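User: Quick sanity check before I run a bigger batch. Here is a single chain. Can you write out its predicted 3D structure?
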Amino acid sequence: MTRILLIETASPQRIFEKAQNIFESGAYTNPEVFVLCDEKNRQTYGRLQGVTVLALFAPSYYRSIPELTCGPFDVMFAFWTGEKRFRSWKRLVSRLKAKKTYILSGDGNEFRLTWKARIRHAIFRLQHPLPTDHRQYSESAANREEVLIVQSAEPAYVLEALNRLKEKPLFVNPRYTIFCRNKPEIVNSFRDNPMLPTVLLHCEASESWKHLRALRRHHFEAIVLFLTGDPSYRKIKIFAFLLGTRRILVFNESSDCFFFNVRQWFALLSHRIPMQSHPVPSSRWGHSTRILVSLVLKSVLLPFRFLWLLLVWLRLKRSGLKLSR
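Assistant: Done. Predicted structure follows.
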């Protein structure tokens, strides 16, 4: 008999599919499947045939269930799909004992949990906060996404972005809140928009710390930011990155958008720098400055690039030696 534990660290549909897959695949001998879940979802998982439901009022009470403390499970499955509401349940992965622990990260990805896998997954999740199949598994009624739109461009860019998000939604059942300048012409352009039920106002740098604390306490799931090259919005652009939101959707001056990551950020900078206009007398010095900065960056990054190539070469050589044996 194989004792298998599924921890509810994602939407119920993912747990249902994994449990059914365990029984249908035949990969485990006489599987005895347990589902560890929140007490309010006991009846939901009770519909699964052949599954024992272990329900807790809170993750910290896991020691009160004998099945969790009597001995290690043969296999344990957890779901790391970037959903914030399951963070406290994900900590049980390191507290409960199992001979083998596997992580399902969405999009059909599954890997055995090791310290190297933890690092790789953490880096990947920083670049991709949610899997592409998140909308397929999310519960639209319970998972309303609170999205903050930071007005860091003229209203025309914001309204164009809203039209694009209406035609091609990128968020699950979103509720948009806009944070904009307290100017009559700007406020009036957003007041009557049905996609913006909440309009928050600010007066440039006035009471910035108060706004920062209030917005951080709200815990928005995503931010919409505009990087159109307008220098009059520099402070609010920096302010947006201090809000602690993992997903930032960036719109440029052409209304093209991407979720912020390091690669896309450098691509935008490399595209933007040649477009910067300089006065004619200083254009030669501006060009020389860019060349100098480029040389300095390349000199600083060269040792790290060499080390990375060396590690890749050693890994390939090690793989070749294993195959030759």
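Confidence is low (pLDDT under 50) at residues 277-284.

User: Great, the batch can go ahead then.
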